[in-house]
Amino acid sequence: MNNRRKLVIALGAGALVAPLASFGQQQAKIFRIGFLHPSSATLSTSRVVALRSGLRDYGYVEGKNLAIEFRWADGNYERLPELAAELVRVNVDVIVTSGTPSTRAAKEATTTLPIVMTVTGDAVGSGLIASLARPGGNLTGATYFDPELTGKRFELLKEAVPRIAHLAAFVNPLNPQAMGTALQALQVVTKVKKVALEVFEARGPNEFDNAFSAMAKKRVDAVEVVDDAMFISNFKAIATLAASKRLPSTGTKEFAEAGGLIGYGVSFDATHNRAAYFIDRIFKGAKPSDLPVEQATRFELVVNLTTAKALGIKIPESILLQANKLIE
Question: pTM of the predicted model, to two decimals?
Answer without folding.
Answer: 0.78
